[in-house]
Amino acid sequence: MVKKTISVLAAVVIALACAVPAFCDRLSGNYAAVTCVTVGDDLTVLYAIKQDGDKTACEERFLTPGTQVVLAGEETDPVELIEAGYDTEGKVFVAVSTKNGEGYIDAGRLSPEEDTYSAQSTYAVTYTYTYHVVDPDGLAVRKGPSIVYDVAGTIPYGEDFTLISQDSETEPTYGYVDYNGLSGWVYIYDYTPVHHAAYKVDSSSYFAGKLEVLTDKVYLVDINTVENGKYRRLSDNIPKGTVLSFKYYCYLSEGVAAYTEYGGKKGWVTFSISTTDTKAWDIMPYVFDIATVGKEAALYEKRGSSSPVSGKTVPEGTPVNVNAFCLVNEGGRNVYRILVDYNGEKLWLRADLESGIGLSVGLYALAYVSADSIKLYQTFDYTQDTKSTVYYGERMNVFSPVYANGLSWYYVNMTDGKSGFIRNKEDTITTYANSSRHALRVSDKDGKTILGVNEIYGDPGVNTTAPASEKQKAEETKEFPAQKVIIGAVAAAVVLGAIAISAVTTLKKKKSE
Fold first, then answer.
1. Which of 146, 221, 222, 336 is the most interior residue, by most CB within 10 Å?
2. Are residues 427 and 354 in the same domain?
3. What's the confidence (pLDDT) of residue 350?
4. 346 and 404 part of one domain
5. Where are the beta strands (DSSP E) in 116-220?
6. Residue 462 counted as domain residue
7. How far apart are CA 458 and CA 413, in angstroms?
8. What is the span of the domain harbouring residue 336?
9. Does any domain span residue 77?
10. Are residues 16 and 47 in the same domain?
11. Quick one: pLDDT at residue 275?
12. Which of 210, 239, 357, 277 is closest to 348 using CA atoms?
C-alpha cells in the first residue's frame, strides 16, 4: 500500500511539473493576452460601463498617451454604448482592462506593443470547418488576433481556407491561417454587419445544402449591403415549392443566410431555425440532425397532414435521423414537424411536448462518466432492474436529450458498443466537446444509416480506463480521495523544490569554498 501511495504521488508530481508550463502556454494563447498602448498626442477616451439598476450608464475616463491596456474582446456596435446614447456607426471598439477600470476604447486609438502575435501561443482548432470568402473586397489577414494589428495581406473573394489554430478554446473570434504562404489572423466571428467568410457545406455541415421555399415571401438579398434597415433585394419572389441548393452559409444575428442561385441571379436567402420565429414558416432547411422519441409516436406521410399513416409508429426510445424540419399551423397553433428516416422511408413526426419527441437541435457531444458509476437503461423506466452499468472515466457519445416519464434523459452510445439511456443529471457525465450545429451520418457494417453523429473531434486524452467493477472503483475512491492526492502532490512538489534549492545552494557554497 505504501509503495502504491508513493508511486501515485510521484506520478502526480511529475504530471504537475509538466502541466504547469503547458497550462501557462495555453493561457498565453487567450485573446485577452494581447496588450496595447494608447496612441496620439491627445487623451484617449475610455468608456467605462456601469449598471444603474435596469439602465446602462457610461462614464468617460481619459487615458494619457502611452497608457497600457489589455484587450478582452472586440465589438462593432457595443450594446452598452448604444444604450448609453453614443453613436457607434462606422467604428470598431475593443473591450479593455486598464488601471482606470474596464470598458471600451475606439480601436483606432490603440497600437499593439508587439508588431506581431506569436502563432505558437494558440488553441487547437475545435471544429474542422472549411470557410469561403464572401466579402467582395476579400478577407484581411492581420499580424495578430485583433483589429488593432496591421493587415499583412488579403485572401481573395471566392477562395476557401481552413484554420490552423484559434485565439480562444471555445468561442474563437480570430483564426490563424496559412494561405499560399500568407500567414496571419482572420476575423471569423459570424454576427457582423459585413460578412467576411461563410461556412462551406461539407462533411462538417449541419445543413445538408438544400432549402425548400414554403411561402411567396422569399427572395435573394445581398447580406453585405443594407438599404433602409434591410438587406438589399436582388430578385423577385421565389415561387412556393422551389427547392434551392447552396454550397455555403453563415449565421446572422437574426438567423441564417445561404448563398444560392435563382433565375440567373446569385444571392442569399435568409431564414430562421427557431420554432418561435415566424421566418421559420418561410423556408424548410434540410439538415443532419437527430431526434429521440420519448413515447410511441405516429408517422405522417406529409408535413401538413392531420391523419397519421395507418399502422406506422415509432416506438418509445428510438433515435432517428432528422432530414428536415418546419413549422405547421394546426388549429391555430404552431406544431413542429420533422422529416425522419425510419425503416427505409422518409416520413414526418409531430414534435411537441405532447408527442414526447426530444430534438437534439444539432446536439452531439463527446463526454465521460464523472460519477463512480451510472446505470444504462434500455427504456425510460428507471424503477426497473438494469444489469448494464458504466463506470467513472468511460467515454460516450451523447445524443439528443428527451423528456420522458417525468425525467430528462440522454441517449448515449458507449465506446464499447453498448447503447441506451442515462438520466440527465449534472453529476453523472462531463462533456468535453460538443457542437450545436454540425453532425454527420454513420452507418452500420451493412451500410445502413443508423445515426447522425459528429466525427470531427479528436481525442483530447480523457481517461478511458474503467474499473473492473463498481466495488473496485469504490475501494479506490475510498483509499485515494482526489483532494488528498492533490494536497499530497502539492506538498511533495514543495518538498522536492525545497530539496532542489537546498542542493543548489550547497553546491554553490562548496564551489565558492
1. 146
2. no
3. 85
4. no
5. 123-124, 131-133, 139-142, 151-155, 160-161, 165-166, 174-179, 182-187, 197-200, 207-213
6. no
7. 17
8. 285-359
9. yes
10. no
11. 61
12. 357
365, three cell numbers: 457531444
Specify whether 322 is located in the same domain as 335. Answer: yes
- The CATH number of residue 172's host domain is 2.30.30
In a domain, 334, yes or no: yes
Residue 471 belongs to some domain of the structure: no
Give the type of residue at 305: S
Q: Say whether both 159 and 108 belong to one domain.
A: no
- The beta-carbon contacts of 455-459 under 8 Å, at least 24 apart in sequence, are 456/127, 456/128, 456/203, 456/204, 457/126, 457/366, 457/433, 458/124
E-assigned strand segments in 21-156: 35-38, 44-52, 55-63, 68-75, 93-98, 101-106, 110-112, 123-124, 131-133, 139-142, 151-155
Q: Are strands 389-391 and 395-404 parallel, antiparallel or unpaired?
A: unpaired
Q: At what angle do helices 2-28 and 482-512 cross, to 10 degrees?
A: 80
User: What are the pLDDT digits (tens) for 415-450?
Assistant: 677 788 888 877 788 776 555 445 555 555 565 555
Question: Which residues have a Cβ under 8 Å from the Cβ of 330 and sit 6 or more positions away?
Answer: 306
Question: Of 171, 200, 229, which one is at a domain's C-terminal end?
Answer: 200
AA identity, residue 49: I
Residue at which a domain ends, from 223, 249, 271: 271
Which residues of the chain carry a pLDDT beneath 50?
1-30, 32, 361-362, 436-437, 454-513
Of the candidates 127, 167, 147, the residue with the CA atom closest to the CA atom of residue 27: 167
pLDDT at 236: 95
> Is residue 456 within 8 Å of residue 206, measured between CB atoms?
no
88 and 141 belong to one structural domain:
no
Cβ atoms of 74 and 173 closer than 8 Å:
yes
